[in-house]
Predict the structure.
Amino acid sequence: MAMTDRDDLLVQDFFRQAARQQIEDDGFTERVMQRLPRTDSYKVHRLTQLWTVFCVVVGIALFFAFDGWEVLKASLLTLFSTSVTAVEVFFTTAPTTEVHLNPWMILLVVAFVLIYLPYQTARKLSATL
């Protein structure tokens, strides 16, 4: 454990020293930065928000225009019945294989797929918005 701490300190010290170094470029970086086009970040942010609102409104309108509830209900019922059939086939054919199935491991995998992955996806999406 002490070795890892020492390694971490050495790496941090290396990067601290590297950040202090100045590379002489005869003012090239400053000239490039001044020639870059200026953007008004408030305008860009506002346009992004307006575009998002527009897309959400259009999406909701299309959802109701094409009877989205029925399509969603049919899709979820199909997904559920297909999943149940797949699990039924899996447990029916599993005893014929030489692979030992641990029910707790299957439960953990199902919990991971149904709970943890959607949670992480939602967390990452909310962090980017």
